[in-house]
Specification:
single chain; three-stranded antiparallel sheet; 4 helices
């Protein structure tokens, strides 16, 4: 479980569907006591990738999706597979009700945050 319950406690919008964490966000993966803690560091940019055609039904700015998206993107940037990161996304969604969005519709594209980080890396060189 994470320490923050409201989006404004730990992240701010950057633009479009991009957000940035302003405080670390930690989540214990699996069952309580598993010891596998994933932390999204402060300053991490992440996106809430919901296909444009479904945004009328699922709002990417809904605070219930933000933690799941931040954890998913952090895991993907650390090299976790899409399936494992997607499982954590699903776990977070199960613990925090946010509608009945099918998992396959939520995290398929993920391009915005990867493009953001790629552009930042090329800019920093």
């Amino acid at each position: 479980m994470s320490a923050y319950t409201k989006a404004e406690d730990w992240c701010l919008p950057v633009g479009g569907i991009l957000y940035q964490s302003i405080r670390p966000l930690s989540w214990e993966v699996g069952v309580m006591g598993s010891g596998l803690i994933v932390t999204v560091p402060a300053g991490t940019v992440f996106d809430v990738s919901i296909p444009r055609g479904l945004r009328w039904l699922f709002d990417p700015h809904d605070p219930h999706y933000l933690k799941a998206a931040a954890l998913h993107d952090t895991l993907r940037l650390r090299g976790w597979s899409r399936i494992l990161a997607g499982a954590v996304f699903h776990e977070v969604r199960k613990r925090r009700p946010c509608g009945r969005m099918p998992l396959v519709l939520t995290r398929r594209s993920g391009g915005d945050v990867r493009n953001y980080h790629r552009d930042r890396q090329s800019h920093d060189r």
